[in-house]
Amino acid sequence: MIKLFVFDLGNVILPFNHVQIADKLSDCQKNRTFCPQDIFDYIFDFEKGSINGYEEGHCSSMEFFQDIRDRYKLDVEFDAFKEIWNNIFWENLEVNEMIVYLKAKGYPIFLLSNTNELHFTHIIERYPIVHVMDEWILSFEIGAKKPQQRIYDAIFEKMDVSRDEVFYIDDVEPYVQSARYLGMNGMVFTQPADLWDIIRNSNF
After folding, report:
1. What is the pLDDT along the chain (204 residues), one digit of tens a residue?
2. DSSP for 42-102?
3. Non-local CB neighbours of 87 within 8 Å, separated by 6+ positions
4. What stretches of the chain adopt beta strand conformation (E)?
5. In whole angstroms, what separates CA 89 from the centre of its chain?
6. Which of 16, 112, 151, 154 has the greatest number of CB atoms lying within 10 Å of its CB?
7. How many separate helices (H) and strands (E) can be counted in the chain?
8. What value does the CA radius of gyration of the chain take, rounded to a whole number of Å?
9. 10 Å Cβ neighbour count for 168?
10. Is residue 36 reached through a cis peptide bond, with omega within 30 degrees of 0 on the bond before it?
């Protein structure tokens, strides 16, 4: 029996396009030395990207910004950088409806996300759906990112529930596989209709 639903944030609750960050930062260079792809790879490479340390809380938002600014000789101030960095999200209203539906049925809802201070500060100001959640489990606060076990373990520090009573939803298959390996139920999110089918056919 499922007693807790845990949702990923990016590309589940909030679709996003982070490619535009590198495009806009490239335009801020004092001398067009680097192309947008160079900047994108430096920041967002899955294994080596500078965002990894930032999303594990190893540096402050200002330190993260200063590293990128100095490396690419950007003519941009912190406030302008925040606008470029943050304005990449939009709402998936069908997922919002599912979260509200599950809450109305009495289920607790957790958010579990690889994210950073700037993004999440922006999100809690702009997107009310995150305030429907009972708990936020955020990589930059936990000090670990999916698929590390530490961030999944935080679920069970916040609620006394068995692992097989958790249903985890994420768009990244390896993250769902990690949750399943740790004993949870899970699905790889591709479109809201698939999740609706699971919810309705399972009598949640």
Report:
1. 999 999 999 999 999 999 999 999 999 999 889 999 999 999 999 999 999 999 999 999 999 999 999 999 999 999 999 999 999 999 999 999 999 999 999 999 999 999 999 999 999 999 999 999 999 999 999 999 999 999 999 999 999 999 999 999 999 999 999 999 999 999 999 999 999 998 888 766
2. HHH-TTT-THHHHHTTSS-HHHHHHHHHHHHTB---HHHHHHHHHTTB---HHHHHHHHHH
3. none
4. 4-7, 109-113, 135-138, 166-170, 185-188
5. 11
6. 112
7. 11, 5
8. 18
9. 24
10. no
The structure's pTM equals 0.95
C-alpha to C-alpha distance for 187 and 173, rounded to whole angstroms: 8
- Distance separating alpha carbons of residues 192 and 170, to the nearest angstrom: 12
Single out the residue of 157, 162, 132 nearest to residue 142, CA to CA: 157
Contact of 161 with 4, CB cutoff 8 Å = yes
Phi/psi of residue 160, each to 5°? -80, 95
